[in-house]
Amino acid sequence: MKLTLTSLAALFAIWSTLTGCSLFKKDESDDDTTLMLLLLAASSSTSTNPCSGSGASTGSTISNTTATIGGDGCISGVTTSMDSALPTWIKNNFKCSVGYVVGDYYCFKSKNLPNHTSFYWTGAATGATLSAALTNYDSTTYTAAGTNRIGSQNFVYAIPKTPTKNSGTLTGTQGGLSSIGITLNGLAIFNNAAAPGDVLATEATTFDSFGAHPNNQSITHHHAWIKKYSTDQSATVTTNFNMDSNLIGVALDGYAIYGAQCDNGTAGTGDDFTPTLDSLHGHTAVTQHFSTATYHYHYVLDSTATIKTLMGSYFYGKIGAVSN
Ligand SMILES: [Zn+2]
Ligand SMILES: [Zn+2]
Questions:
Q1: Could you tell me which of 58, 160, 59 has the C-alpha nearest to residue 106?
Q2: Which of 30, 133, 142, 207 is the most exposed, fewest CB within 10 Å of its CB?
Q3: Alpha-carbon distance 135 to 98, whole Å?
């Protein structure tokens, strides 16, 4: 069939109607359906989350109009506490959350408040500068922000202490979970999908200058790149934190997530390499945190998202639990 411009336009109109997709969408609506399922799942699974009801509070609720970044690099009032029973790779790297151990699980409780400036802290108009309290971290203006706002959450993660490969039907990352992992700075990790009919590459226009955005439940999350956090708190970071071998966070199945490069664990610099990965974004190798070959994920181009993402469509291992 010969396609004319007119027939292409007609096809697009039909496709748009079927998918509800708009190429001009600015407000993030990704995960809305997922989120509803999730909230249902979360409320019903709270009693089965082995980490619920245990451990210290993550602090009081924070107002997004008065949020300030404290001396520990987290939003003032957000507690960082990592129990001594946690392994070094967690104790030395995770912050802005409360970590502890219950039975077979590493637990994290998080208010899920980003320790970076973002348009989404405020109710200001698109392109406005951020609240003065946070401008020492970034004075960038944002041009693609929607109406969603950052808000305090009460995430409880149960991460398996001993991750195990799931030899059965793999668990998907795209439904039924309120978050699929936690970043070093206590933020939710979301999947590689956008609203039906859309791709994450389109929604990426709503990421703030640190690669995060909140959904319509005020849950701030990362799908993809992260500009800075953790030890990298300087005011003028221009590099993409994900492009080297930095530890990014941990997935709900207990496997670590790294940037695009793999570090073989030696102290030398310049020896990082681009790993060959499976379809789940992972491979088994030693890293700077694991001296025996251990499965882990990398930030890599994802075919569903059409951009690099932190996670693919499925978990490699058996997942723990998450509630909010
Ligand atoms: Zn999102
Ligand atoms: Zn690796």
A1: 160
A2: 133
A3: 26
Residue type, 231: T
- What pLDDT score does 207 carry? 82
Max CA pair span of the chain: 68
pLDDT of residue 13: 39
pTM here is 0.80
CA of 221 to the centre of ligand 2 (A): 23
Amino acid at 121: W
Could you say which residues of the chain have pLDDT below 70? 1-47, 54-66, 122-146, 195, 227-241, 267-269
User: What pLDDT is recorded for position 51?
Assistant: 93
Beta strands in the chain (DSSP E): 81-82, 98-102, 105-110, 155-160, 181-183, 188-189, 212-214, 220-222, 247-251, 256-258, 282-285, 294-298, 300-301, 308-309, 321-323
Contact between 134 and 67 under an 8 Å Cβ cutoff? The reply is: yes
What is the domain partition of the chain in residue ranges?
24-58+76-324
39: Cβ contacts below 8 Å, ≥ 6 apart: 178, 217, 324
User: What is the whole-number distance in angstroms between the Cα of residue 69 and the centre of ligand 2?
Assistant: 32
Q: What is the mean pLDDT of the chain?
A: 76
216 alpha carbon, closest ligand: 1
Overall size of the chain counted in residues? 324
Residues 295/255, Cβ–Cβ less than 8 Å: yes
Residues with CB under 5 A from ligand 2 (ion): 262, 275, 285
Looking at the CA of 35, name the nearest ligand: 1
C-alpha of residue 2 to centroid of ligand 1, in Å:
38
Rounded to whole angstroms, how far apart are CA atoms 140 and 145?
12
Question: Mapped to the 3 state alphabet, what secondary structure does 75-124 carry?
Answer: ECCCCCEECCCCCHHHHCCCCCCEEEEECCEEEEEECCCCCCCCHHHCCC
Question: Mind listing the pLDDT tens digit for each residue in 117-144?
Answer: 777 776 444 444 444 445 434 445 555 4
Structure tokens at 51: 């980490």
Eight-state DSSP code of residue 235: T
